[in-house]
Each structure stands twice: as structure tokens, then as C-alpha cells.
Design a protein that fits this description.
The protein is α+β, with helices and mostly antiparallel strands.
């Protein structure tokens, strides 16, 4: 009596809770990546992304003016400025709390307190507005005195990370070229297998010819073949016929690896279409090509869209196939996944750059998925029941 009409079993609530948990498990890291891409190095190192909307306390290493800024006043050299607005400072709007001149005592002095060090030969005082006065018996060094300034910094966002990634010119930091290279690989590698698979799926679903059952069994068998087994033989074939490493080679490789699933998915969908429509069209004198283009393709759009989502995501996020069939010594055809790997080596400590590069990489798949997700379930479930 627990499952009679009008009641819900406890399993439904468990399913709902699990779905919410999985959604949050995906949303939180993605949101954190987005927020971190608009933060600076100091902000990321001093607080978590969930505190980005609130003022944060952070300690920043800054320097006073050096010998060029010193003015001799009697027997002292005097340097004045503002640690908040000078180069490397936290910026206007920050509130200094304490400071220190040694990494072992970064908060040794309060704001407004006179700090004496080097046996009294040097002094430093910092006011609440960030203005400082540094004095020294000897002429200051070229780089000035190092100061560890602890300040409360207001919430702020910056576009500098995106400028560095997208508009830094040539080099490993430039993701713009890798972005367009990835589009050059992904778009044809998504369209080509869809076109070929649609024709093959129609033939396997609605055309009678010898060996059709054997071809269907072969397509199913190819679904379980690891692509790693075919990488080296396929590359040797490309080199042997003169294709080499390039866009054509990587398009053909992605097409070959994506065709079995595409044919299987589309064939199952087309088999489930009403037979009466096809038979009536044949009675009216329509050819197979006309039936395919005028009837089957429009009705198969959910299945085509669902496979397009999968193929696009697989190709966009691919690194292995691109490494084997595309990447050259000069890096002129490098894709985003390989560019991020390079950034891990050159920018391993710059989390803001890595976060920005990662979010740029996932932005296009997110747009494609959310734009076409309504067709995903319809295309996958089609043909599964009769």
C-alpha cells in the first residue's frame, strides 16, 4: 500500500536529494573558477573565492621610494609617499591596519606608530590614509625599504587576467590563438561525423541490402574498441599517404573515433520513427534521398543535437588526439587543452591566470550545452523503448 496512486515513495526524495547534491557539486567549483578569474594573486592567496564579495584582510609586501626619491634634510635622508597608491600597493579604498619591516614580525607596528630599526638609524611611520615618512641616516638603497603592510581591502574585480590571457600577444600566455585553433578543430570534427553517420544510420534503419545485420553488429563492436589502440597505426597511415600532422589529419581521426556512437545513436532513433510516414512517401514516388532530406532529418533533429553535444564536448576537451595528430614543434596549431598544460609549467604559481585560462576553456562548452540541452535527453532516450 505504500506505492498506491497519489503517494510518493521515500526513494523519490532520495533521488531528488542526490540530483541536488550532484548539481551543487558541479556548480560550486565552476562558480569558484569564474570568481577567481576576476581576482588578483594577493586576493586569491589571502582568502577563498566565497569571500570575494566582502572586504578581506591581506598582507602585501610593498617598498618605499628608493635613493631617487630621497630628499636630504640636515643629516637625514627623507622619503615620503603613499603605500596604498604607490606601485605594488593595495590601492585607494584600502584601510591599513599594521605594518612591519621584517618577515618574522609583519605586524609589529600599529598605524600611526613610529617604527625604529637598524639600531635607531632608520624610522618609518605610516598614517591611516597610507601616507608614510621614512628617514635614514645613510642614503637609501635603489629599491627602497621593504614593508609588510596589512590592510583591509574592499571587494574588487579586475579584467587584467583576461587581458593577459587573450591579448598578451605571442607566447604561452596567449590563449586567443589556441581558442581559434580549437574552434578550427572542433567545428569540422563535429559536423563531418554527423553528416556521414546520418546517411549511414538511414541506410541501416530503412534500406534492405545484403550484410546489413553484419554492419550493425560491427558498429556495436567498434563502440568498445579503445581509441588508444588505433592512435599509432592511424598516425602511420596518415604519414604514409601524405596527410601528416595537421587539421585534416585530426578531423579524420575525430571522425573515425566518433562515427560508431553516432551511427548507433542515430540508427536507434530513426528505427523508432513511424513506418507509415516512410511507406506513404515511397508510395507517392519519393526517392530514398528525398525521404532522408525532407522527412528523416527534420524528425531526427533531437538525436542529431544530442550527438553534436557529445562530439563537441569530447573534441573541445581533447588533448590526446591533438597531441598525436596536430601539435607541431612550433606550436602554431596548439589547442587550448595543450595551452593550459603549458601554463601549468610556466604559470604554476599564478592561480589567477590558470583560473582564467580554465574558465575561457569551459565557457564555449557551457554555452553549447545549455543552448541544446533540451534535446539531449530526448535524443538519448529515443529508440530505447517501443
Amino acid at each position: 500500500m505504500d506505492n498506491i496512486a497519489g503517494t510518493k515513495s521515500g526513494l523519490n526524495w532520495a533521488v531528488h536529494i542526490s540530483v541536488v547534491f550532484l548539481v551543487l557539486l558541479w556548480v560550486f567549483p565552476t562558480l569558484g573558477l569564474l570568481v577567481s578569474s576576476f581576482r588578483t594573486t594577493d586576493q586569491i592567496s589571502s582568502s577563498g573565492w566565497w569571500k570575494a564579495m566582502f572586504p578581506t584582510e591581506q598582507t602585501i609586501q610593498v617598498r618605499t621610494g628608493g635613493a631617487a626619491a630621497a630628499v636630504q634634510d640636515g643629516g637625514l635622508y627623507v622619503v615620503e609617499g603613499n603605500l596604498l597608491t604607490d606601485e605594488g600597493g593595495p590601492g585607494t579604498g584600502s584601510t591599513p591596519i599594521s605594518f612591519g619591516v621584517s618577515s618574522r614580525a609583519i605586524g609589529a607596528y600599529q598605524i600611526g606608530e613610529m617604527a625604529e630599526f637598524s639600531d635607531g638609524e632608520e624610522t618609518l611611520i605610516i598614517e591611516e590614509d597610507g601616507a608614510y615618512r621614512y628617514t635614514s641616516v645613510e642614503e637609501p638603497g635603489r629599491r627602497g625599504q621593504r614593508v609588510f603592510l596589512t590592510a583591509v581591502t574592499p571587494a574588487q574585480a579586475t579584467l587584467d587576467n583576461y587581458k593577459t590571457i587573450l591579448f598578451s600577444g605571442s607566447g604561452q600566455d596567449n590563449m586567443a590563438k589556441a581558442f581559434f585553433n580549437t574552434l578550427t578543430v572542433t567545428i569540422p570534427a563535429t559536423i563531418i561525423p554527423i553528416v556521414i553517420a546520418a546517411f549511414a544510420a538511414y541506410a541501416l534503419a530503412w534500406m534492405d541490402f545484403p550484410g546489413r545485420a553484419l554492419l550493425i553488429a560491427l558498429v556495436v563492436a567498434l563502440l568498445v574498441v579503445p581509441l588508444q589502440l588505433a592512435l599509432i597505426p592511424l598516425l602511420r597511415l596518415h604519414l604514409g599517404i601524405g596527410i601528416g600532422k595537421g587539421y585534416l589529419g585530426v578531423w579524420l581521426a575525430h571522425t573515425a573515433f566518433g562515427l560508431p556512437l553516432a551511427i548507433y545513436l542515430l540508427r536507434n532513433y530513426m528505427v523508432g520513427l513511424p513506418r507509415d510516414i516512410i511507406e506513404n512517401a515511397k508510395v507517392d514516388g519519393a526517392t530514398d534521398f528525398q525521404i532522408f532530406t525532407k522527412i528523416i532529418l527534420p524528425l531526427s533533429f533531437p538525436a542529431l543535437a544530442s550527438f553534436a553535444i557529445f562530439q563537441f564536448l569530447w573534441t573541445w576537451n581533447d588533448l590526446l588526439v591533438a597531441k598525436v595528430f596536430l601539435i607541431d614543434a612550433t606550436g602554431s596549431t596548439t589547442v587550448m587543452t595543450n595551452q593550459i598544460v603549458e601554463l601549468l609549467g610556466t604559470r604554476g604559481g599564478n592561480w589567477e591566470i590558470l583560473a582564467t585560462a580554465a574558465f575561457v576553456s569551459i565557457s564555449v562548452p557551457l554555452v553549447v550545452f545549455f543552448a541544446m540541452q533540451r534535446y539531449l535527453v530526448r535524443g538519448l532516450l529515443a529508440g530505447s523503448v517501443k
